[in-house]
């Protein structure tokens, strides 16, 4: 029998007969590893312990201590165990697919009756029974004809359709969990008892069209989450509970920030409170950009398709664009325009007006650009995922030898803004060339090398995010981590050699000849809509005082204090604090509760004693204690807090 060489992570190689399984390799290394092993990585691919290895390879054995692989297996096995449980309880149910997703899995079922929330408890109970049986998990490879006949005989039409849609004629892998069987690529654990029975939970039921096609059957999807231990599950559920409290859609209603309605899907109706946050943030960004050497411009909303064709967006991005047809007077055919989905081609048009010299570079151009992109209705999510939004967009036109310096300058610019807004740390991902792209490989090599080198020179080693660059160039993605550990991709910085070429942008170099500028695309907050949603959830509605739309409510305890309430409000307004009066004939506790729900940062209570002493009783949001302070001291203190961070001394 042929011999193969398997190289372990420590560099040592072992010789085995071809066809040895990863499980046998683990047992050969040590008896304890053989017992603890759950899977292996063979030449970078995740392997079931039962799969044969037929050629030389690098191999690493995994145990439950390897979080990434263990989570994948546990969640994958639970998808099968859940499907088995459903069919044991309701035998007429037909199964479809059940993939692993972030933090868990889902499985789609075809069942005549609807699942209820109460059914989830029964399914969980049956799943735990299956886990406790410690049924063997085994795998076989079948030819297609045999697999199709098996599913036809067992009344599983969805499995038949899946097999028929798989290209090629390669054999198929079949898995059994006990007597229950599924078509699956694997890998899986070795028996059901390896799944932690106390570390999973079924979460919800949703509708899902078969294969995402609205003309096909509506299925029922059950979602679950799972981890390698009950403490991790508990932490995840606590995080979800906290996330629900912080949901910007819920807080948006309570704080009266905005609303959305079906007549304008994916578009935001900003109320006065929400628009105040928006304009405060925009004014802050305008000052930062001006200080950073940017010139602010504004470009049209509706642009002829000819520009989008020239830029490459018509070919690469048309499905996400809103098309506007205009029947021009006396025209033989309608003019085809598009609402702009991004601002970059328009900024090149401004750059192209008049002759530019190498002395004019870098030219930093910024716009609060209102954009529109088509998003499927099912993908819309409050103000986090919309169709109409405004970006703090910017483009830096520079020479190739300026890329490194401009990237370093931008990273520091972005770092200072994130710090001002309460995000001390961020991660950076480097996204290289996607499959669908413009420009030659030579141009992409140059762009990727320039951006990666510049990022490292700025003291940052980015995480690789392969294939996720824009169609015209590689990019950096700046990822914020919020108070409960969630990641948000916000800022971007992209190097583009392609668009200046396509749109014929030039400058006169020191040699007197024409040269192409490099275009650096950058956005710091991304869309204002999404970033405001992130801020709301990061701070659980308790926004930094300078951004809070309602900063202070001065509430009367007794009607005799009404005149003093007005005096306090006017004093605070004169100090630059947004203040309002609440002189309703309601108890002070009622007023405090109501304004606390509205996330007003400071409530000043005023009664007879405060009137006499020219003081106020100060209650800050989230604090139970109150303090009595002189009005002049409070006004001075709050005036400092109301000053945006870039304007503080």
Automatic annotation (TrEMBL):
Zn(2+) binds at residues 344, 395, 521. It is an enzyme of class 6 (ligase). It catalyses: tRNA(Thr) + L-threonine + ATP = L-threonyl-tRNA(Thr) + AMP + diphosphate + H(+). InterPro entries: aa-tRNA-synt_IIb (IPR002314), aa-tRNA-synth_II (IPR006195), aa-tRNA-synth_II/BPL/LPL (IPR045864), Anticodon-bd (IPR004154), Anticodon-bd_dom_sf (IPR036621), Beta-grasp_dom_sf (IPR012675), TGS (IPR004095), TGS-like (IPR012676). Its EC number is 6.1.1.3. It comes from the Bacteria. Binds 1 zinc ion per subunit. Signal peptide: none annotated. Residues 247-544 form the Aminoacyl-transfer RNA synthetases class-II family profile domain. Keywords: Aminoacyl-tRNA synthetase, ATP-binding, Cytoplasm, Ligase, Metal-binding, Nucleotide-binding, Protein biosynthesis, RNA-binding, tRNA-binding, Zinc. One of its GO terms (molecular function) is ligase activity. Its cofactor is Zn(2+). Residues 1-63 form the TGS domain. It is found in: Cytoplasm. Homodimer. Belongs to the class-II aminoacyl-tRNA synthetase family. This is Threonine--tRNA ligase. It comes from Sulfitobacter pacificus. The lineage of its organism: Bacteria, Pseudomonadati, Pseudomonadota, Alphaproteobacteria, Rhodobacterales. The gene is thrS.
């Amino acid at each position: 029998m042929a011999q193969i060489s398997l190289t372990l992570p420590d560099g040592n190689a072992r010789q085995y007969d071809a066809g040895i399984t990863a499980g046998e390799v683990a047992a050969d290394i040590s008896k304890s590893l053989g017992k603890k092993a759950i899977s292996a990585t063979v030449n970078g691919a995740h392997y079931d312990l039962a799969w044969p290895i037929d050629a030389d390879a690098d191999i690493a054995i995994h145990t439950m201590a390897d979080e990434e692989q263990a989570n994948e297996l546990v969640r994958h096995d639970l998808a099968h165990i859940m499907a088995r449980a459903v069919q044991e309880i309701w035998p007429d149910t037909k199964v479809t697919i059940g993939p692993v997703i972030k933090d868990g899995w889902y499985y789609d079922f075809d069942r005549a009756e609807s699942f209820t929330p109460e059914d989830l408890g029964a399914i969980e109970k049956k799943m735990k029974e299956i886990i406790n049986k410690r049924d063997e998990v085994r795998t076989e490879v079948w030819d297609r004809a045999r697999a199709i006949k098996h599913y036809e005989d067992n009344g599983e039409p969805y499995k038949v359709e899946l097999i028929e849609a798989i290209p090629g004629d390669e054999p198929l892998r079949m898995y059994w969990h006990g007597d229950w069987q599924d078509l699956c690529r694997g890998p899986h654990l070795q028996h059901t008892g390896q799944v932690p029975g106390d570390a999973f939970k079924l979460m919800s039921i949703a509708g899902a069209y078969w294969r995402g096609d609205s003309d096909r059957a509506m299925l029922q999807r059950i979602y679950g989450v799972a981890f390698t231990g009950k403490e991790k599950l508990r932490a995840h559920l606590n995080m979800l509970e906290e996330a629900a409290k912080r949901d910007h859609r819920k807080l948006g209603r309570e704080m009266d920030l905005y609303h959305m309605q079906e007549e304008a899907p994916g578009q935001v109706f900003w109320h006065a409170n929400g628009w105040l946050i928006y304009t405060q943030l925009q004014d802050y960004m305008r000052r930062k950009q001006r200080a950073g050497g940017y010139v602010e411009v504004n470009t049209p909303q509706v642009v002829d398709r000819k520009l989008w064709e020239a830029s490459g967006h018509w070919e690469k991005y048309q499905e996400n664009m809103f098309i506007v047809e205009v029947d021009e007077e006396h025209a033989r055919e309608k003019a085809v325009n598009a609402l702009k989905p991004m601002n970059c081609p328009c900024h090149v048009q401004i750059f192209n007006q008049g002759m530019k010299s190498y002395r004019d570079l870098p030219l930093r151009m910024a716009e609060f650009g209102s954009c529109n992109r088509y998003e499927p209705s099912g993908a819309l999510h409050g103000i986090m995922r919309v169709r109409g939004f405004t970006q703090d967009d910017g483009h830096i036109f520079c020479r190739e030898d300026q890329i490194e310096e401009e990237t370093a300058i931008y990273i520091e610019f972005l770092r200072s803004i994130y710090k001002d807004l309460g995000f001390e740390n961020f991660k950076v991902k480097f996204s290289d060339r996607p499959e669908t792209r413009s420009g030659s490989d030579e141009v992409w090599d140059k762009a990727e090398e320039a951006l990666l080198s510049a990022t490292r020179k700025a003291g940052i080693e980015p995480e690789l995010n392969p294939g996720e660059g824009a169609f015209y160039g590689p990019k950096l993605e700046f990822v914020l981590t919020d108070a409960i550990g969630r990641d948000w991709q916000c800022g971007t910085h992209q190097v583009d050699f392609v668009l200046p070429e396509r749109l014929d942008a030039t400058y006169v170099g020191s040699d007197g000849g024409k040269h192409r500028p490099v275009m650096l695309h950058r956005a710091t907050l991304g869309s204002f809509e999404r970033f405001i949603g992130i801020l709301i959830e990061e701070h659980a509605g308790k926004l930094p005082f300078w951004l809070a739309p309602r900063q202070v409510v001065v509430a009367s305890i007794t009607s005799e204090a009404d005149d003093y309430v007005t005096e306090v409000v006017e004093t605070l307004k004169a100090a630059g604090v947004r203040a309002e009066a609440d002189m309703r004939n309601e108890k002070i506790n009622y007023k405090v509760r109501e304004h606390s729900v509205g996330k007003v940062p400071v409530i000043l209570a005023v009664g007879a004693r405060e009137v006499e002493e020219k003081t106020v009783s100060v209650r800050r949001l989230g604090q139970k204690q109150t303090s009595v302070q002189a009005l002049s001291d409070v006004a001075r203190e709050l005036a400092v807090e109301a000053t945006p961070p870039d304007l503080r001394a």
